[in-house]
Every structure is written in C-alpha cells, then in structure tokens.
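Researcher: I'm comparing several assemblies side by side, and this is the next one on my list. It has 227 residues spread over two chains. Same procedure as the others: predict the full complex and return the structure.
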Amino acid sequence: NAGVTQTPKFQVLKTGQSMTLQCAQDMNHEYMSWYRQDPGMGLRLIHYSVGAGITDQGEVPNGYNVSRSTTEDFPLRLLSAAPSQTSVYFCASSYGTANTEAFFGQGTRLTVV
Amino acid sequence: GDSVTQMEGPVTLSEEAFLTINCTYTATGYPSLFWYVQYPGEGLQLLLKATKADDKGSNKGFEATYRKETTSFHLEKGSVQVSDSAVYFCALSDRQGGSEKLVFGKGTKLTVNP
C-alpha cells in the first residue's frame, strides 16, 4: 500500500536551474495539492488540483507550475530555481470533500544555492 | 480569508504531564477542523478531526472539541509519552467557490522528556 509517493527525497539545485518534483498516489483520489514547509511558517499551499485536467493556484504559486494529466500523478515544476525556494515540499491527496483525511508524502527537501 | 492560529512553541514536557495546545480559527463558512502530527523526518498524518460544532475528535489518547462559540479546537492529552514528541498542526478545511482547501496553523513542536 504505497499511498503518496514523492521523489526525490533530497535535491540540491543551482540558481536558475529547473526541475520537476514528482508525486504519485495509488488511492484514486481526485484532490491533490502541493505545500511548502518553512520554519515558523507552517504549510503553505502552492497549487492544487480537483481532478485530472484541472489545476488552480494556492497561496504561494509564483515560480511553480503544475499539470494533472492523470488522476495518479501531480508533478510540480520549478521553472528557474531561486534561493527563496529552498524549502521542504509536501504533496498530499484526498477524496476532496470537507470531511476527509489528507494523505501526505514524506517530503522533498530542496536546497537552492 | 480563512486562517488558523495555534500557540507558539516549542513546548517541552516531562513524561506523564498534561498537554494542551491551543488552536483558534477564522472562517467564513462552516469548516471541518483537524489536528495533524508530523514525526521527525516524516510527512504529516491525521491525528483527529471534527466536522461540526460540539463534535469531539479523539485518537491515541488525544482529544479536541469543536467549539463554535469560541472558534477553538484545542488539543489535549492527559498523560504524554516520549513517543508523542512531534510537531502538531491545527488545520481547517472549508469549501469556498466549489474548491476545497486545507489551511494550516504554523505548527507547535512538542518534546517529551523521560
């Protein structure tokens, strides 16, 4: 029972490089989201998706792109990495109603130098 | 917009002490309320939830009651263990404009010493 799988677990990028953080879930959840976790800031929503082909911006979307071509996958793209994007990134999925549990991946620790 | 405010940490307790972590919220609708826990090196996992006023969520000895009159959802445990050391997040989920969003507090780090 894999749940939500994120890759990679750790990544170091140089300023200006691009990369994609992968997220996959095997629970047939419609709702998926990306958060970043910074010290003293809690979790902040970057982008989310309510189903395949549908995405929307969260609280801190600048510098990130997402797409949702399948129910299972929700990759997060950093277009041109900046030191301000150094953070821990979490992907989550849920059935998408107000009462349901969100399942989180183990996170990707990204450092931009 | 919706927001969650929880007590600043870190909190350090001795084993078997009583725990309270305060959480208050602001929401325009009728949110569901959650406590999530993050153990070191892991992602968040649901600890408990409550979906309407006066509901009490409970799990692993932790409890929280949805108080609409005080817009609060305080987390309590009568006797903490070393294994409870983690970061605790209060969160609300509200449906606005047809979309579902989780809004988190900043987290409270709990350390329990033997």
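Model: For your comparison table: Chain B has a mean pLDDT of 93.
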